[in-house]
Design brief:
Elements: H1 2-32, H2 35-56, H3 61-81
Helix pairs in contact: 2-3
């Protein structure tokens, strides 16, 4: 049983190292991404969250679509009003 515990600790350590390396590469990719790519990367989780909320509360599909349109328009307006802020990490 002690051997299994040691193996589990080793696997947990390997998993933590892999997660740490993944976070480092994600930060580097974010810094190197263009503003348009960053907007898409933020739009995808926003879409998932909006769909999850509307499904949970049984909101009609057209409110879902309207919320997505507002998120996209807000993102474009933010980029148009503050173009330098979208290029900062």
């Amino acid at each position: 049983m002690f051997e299994q515990f040691k193996e589990n600790l080793g696997l947990a350590r390997d998993n933590a190292n892999a997660a740490r390396a993944g976070l480092r590469s994600a930060r580097e990719a974010w810094r190197e991404a263009s503003p348009a790519k960053r907007q898409v990367w933020l739009l995808v989780p926003a879409t998932i969250v909006i769909i999850a909320i509307t499904d949970h509360f049984s909101i009609p599909w057209y409110y879902d679509a309207a919320a997505l349109v507002l998120v996209v328009l807000g993102s474009w307006m933010r980029a148009a009003i503050w173009p330098s802020s979208s290029s900062k990490p």
